[in-house]
Amino acid sequence: MNLSMSFVVLLAILVSAANLVLAHVGVTNIDSSWYDAHATFYGDMSGGETMQGACGYGDLFKEGYGLETAALSTALFNNGQTCGACFELMCVNSQYCKPNTGTIKITATNFCPPNYAEPVQYHWCNPPNSHFDLSMKMFLSFAEYRGGIVPVKFRRVMCNKSGGVRFEIKGNPYFIMVLVYNVGGAGDVSNVEIRGHKSNWIAMSRNWGQIWNTGSNLVGQRLSFVVRTSDGRSLAFFNVAPENWGFGQTYEGKLNF
Ligand SMILES: *[C@@H]1O[C@H](CO)[C@@H](O)[C@H](O)[C@H]1NC(C)=O
């Protein structure tokens, strides 16, 4: 490799690194600045992700997320830490943007995986790209179908959910897993603690997405939770699940962020 080639490679690495840092700022900071990304769409007009995605949410309609959702590229998804965060997007600088359509708002509910098998023009979701794969309905609300992919500006916004934070209990007595969803405010949960009425507070671990687990057996105990979102706010949900709580059941807290 000669000197000028090394320089080009170095420059490419620096540009990638700068993109990653910017993507990170855009995804973690709730501020008013807009960041650059692209958007595509999946599926048809009915939606319709009803299967469990990479955040652990199940039926997005039943869970209240509906079609106002997106799968995020590696750079934005941040290993699932961004699951539940809300974003505002506008279509920019493309003949395929529909005029005067304003912005759309979505919740991050899935991962758009990198794609190394296809030619490079399909590497939207590969690092370091910031990318939103939207439901078709959301995409068509600001861009033309034939555009396929459009440049967008995005920023983090607070989430507004109706009702309380919900806790779906899965797993088994020796490995309790809790999906935490319908989270308002920052939306992305960064810490969960659980306690049975006869136990102390136990820190849960992120299993994947927004599914949190503990190996402590809390069967037959009323369950309480403390949930912290990425902005550092915490809420306590006392006695959310009764003594006879069951696996596969969902319990709703009285509060939301
Ligand atoms: C939630 O409400 C606030 C205040 O009205 C607004 O700024 C924000 O964009 C809303 N978020 C979503 C995801 O609709």
UniProtKB/TrEMBL annotation:
Membrane topology annotation: Peripheral membrane protein
Protein name: Expansin
Domain Expansin-like CBD: 174-253
Annotated family: Belongs to the expansin family. Expansin A subfamily.
Signal peptide: 1-23
PROSITE patterns: EXPANSIN_CBD, EXPANSIN_EG45
UniProt KW Secreted keyword: yes
Keyword Protein transport: no
Gene3D superfamilies referenced in this protein's UniProt entry, alphabetically: Expansin, cellulose-binding-like domain, RlpA-like domain
Expansin-like EG45 domain boundaries: 52-164
Protein's organism: Camelina sativa
Role, per record: Causes loosening and extension of plant cell walls by disrupting non-covalent bonding between cellulose microfibrils and matrix glucans. No enzymatic activity has been found.
Location within or outside the cell: Secreted, Cell wall; Membrane
Alphabetical UniProt keywords: Cell wall, Cell wall biogenesis/degradation, Membrane, Secreted, Signal
Lineage: Eukaryota, Viridiplantae, Streptophyta, Embryophyta, Tracheophyta
